[in-house]
Amino acid sequence: MGRIVVFLGMCLLLAGQFEESRELYGGIDTENYFALLLGTAAVIVCFVKVPGKLYAGDVVGFGLFVYLLVHAGVAGATQSREFYLSISYFALYAVFRTVREMRMTNYASLALMAAGIYQSYLVLEQLLGHGVSNHYRFAVTGSFYNPGPCGIFLAGIFVLSVAMVRKGYRKAGMNVMFVRYVTAWAALSGTWTAMVPTMSRAGWIGAAAGVALLYRKEIRKALGKCRHWIAVAGVVALVGVAAVVYLLKKDSADGRLFIWRNVVAACEEAPVFGVGIDGFERAYAEAQHDFFQKKNALEQDVRQAEVAGVVESAFNEPLALLLLLGGVGGMLGISVLFFKLRRLNEYGCVASALLVASLFSYPFYVPAISMVFVFALAQCPDRPFRMNRKANRVMWGTVGMVALFFNCREYGKREAYREWKEVSVLYSVENFQEASEEYARLYSTLHHDHRFLFEYGRCLNKTGEYEMSNAVLKEGIRHSADPMFWNVMGNNYLAMKQYSLCEKAYLRAYHTCPNRIYPLYLLVKMSCEQGDSTKMRHYAQIMLDKQPKVISPAVEEMKEEVRKMLDE
Known about the structure:
This protein is mainly alpha-helical. It folds into 5 domains: 1-103 and 384-412, no CATH class; 109-215 and 345-381, no CATH class; 249-342, no CATH class; 425-480, no CATH class; 483-568, Alpha Horseshoe (Serine Threonine Protein Phosphatase 5, Tetratricopeptide repeat), CATH 1.25.40. 73% of the residues lie in helices and 0% in strands. It has 25 helices and no strands. The chain has helices spanning 2-17, 27-46, 56-75, 81-101, 105-127, 147-167, 176-198, 201-214, 216-225, 228-248, 250-267, 280-294, 317-341, 346-357, 367-378, 389-411, 414-428, 432-446, 450-462, 466-476, 484-495, 499-512, 518-530, 533-545, 553-567.
């Protein structure tokens, strides 16, 4: 019975992440989030038994969990999505440790490989034109919203499948070892084929690293026997492959290098305790703004402006952890990995593959990938830690009860997201008065979501409630890097004839993302209304000389309007 519960439980956890329902605002991303909350709460209730053995990594991990709770409480981040995702992952770790204690790891692994087969099928179906991807710019995404996370998920399952094939089986027949072996071959073939069209370089690199770790002894032995020129040729080949991977998406790679530079700069502002679990976008926007302001990007062309954007993740999970939780949180995280990965088994290689991929992407923002990583980490060997059994129960029980309490509370907001999806129709057709009234009703539940705050703030701007609009938008910029918040705030200041604050807001928007000319257009309009022809011509000339990142009819219309204003 326990075997069936473990297998079906893992299947249901993953099935919730592959659900493609669009009834909630935010689509797949929001659906996956609430599926994780519900699934975690369900498995916590089912697996009430706590692991009998305790390891050093478990204790340090619990220390990180307590630090996260205190940190989020002090920073006022206990209503953020990042907080709920984090405590869910800690709770799942506790559940997966119980699975290991019950010697049911093989059954959970079967469910993971079955999920990989299913994702591979979706990717190939989309590639052949029989399925529709979830992103208009990409042919394949699987059940994910982007091919990048899909490729990394497939990479994790690929490494797991290679490991299970390598372990083999004792005898053919209807036994778990043989079924695991056959399933592993199917998953290996499917994920290998499906990883290629995702074009996920992070996934490819992670998969290569994971397989290399699986065969590290054989590789070390082969290198010891080969001639020196062969080793040199191998290094040259690796450099060549790295160059090809870089040139494959050069602009994307340059953009990530620029992002890492700004994340490091943001870390310097709060090196010890970080900016808070929900503070990434705010801290990043400030760092990017400061960079371009110092470079005088308004009057000079700055090369990095071409790759600047509205950044929602660091594309490097260790850097993101350091920024969010500071040096203290970073050291605790490194300590957990040290204890769990110092004696690599096959599951440690899976976790390592995802860690390598996380150096170039954002896999741990995606619940399905995080589940694979947490499961693999929970199955790793570790140093035993002596603790009173009662204290052991208190530790694991605290993790489960805290996650159960917060997840059930947050899951109650699901209905608000469904209502928001309906109300957003009013916003999209510019029925701002009625939409504003509905947003006011939802505000108490959704005030932590910066997307909601932007729409609500813009509705208030359109209905003439300028001060209230700015109050809502100021709350939003605490969680968002989008310069449009500053543009709308500037519009509010302009309507209230507060020209100095208006100009500062527009300039803040421009320096946050200087490849957009809309803030410059607003500055020209403001100067015209203010009656300052000198300032108007100054900003107009800058705007006309700037080359936007994306050429569009709207950009040409703005430029044409400014030219007419100069001719008058």
